[in-house]
Amino acid sequence: MPFYFDRQDPMDPTGDISHPRNTQLLGYLDSLMNATAIPGSGSSGFSSKGDAGDRQQIQTAVFDYTRIVNLTDTSPTTGNTISYSLGSLVVPSVFRFATSGSTI
Prior knowledge:
Layout: H1 20-33, H2 52-68, E1 72-73, E2 82-83
Antiparallel strand pairs: 1-2
Helix pairs in contact: 1-2
């Protein structure tokens, strides 16, 4: 499974995060963070670090960070400047996690 988030609307708090591909990736991250151990690390994993709401808040923050990175693509391969957001404004995401039913 390729690991990338899709972006659509920087001014919609639910649009990007409810995109089917993004929801699938957030579900995958949620399952990893709720696992009892991180494979190969010898660690107890994130499940022992706070409650599910804390872990989901971290996931939402990571998702929003990916939305604000590279707001304008100035890739030399395209020769174009493609902007995701006018004025570099992006509203925070609001997401309902399926595992707990909580809204972050």
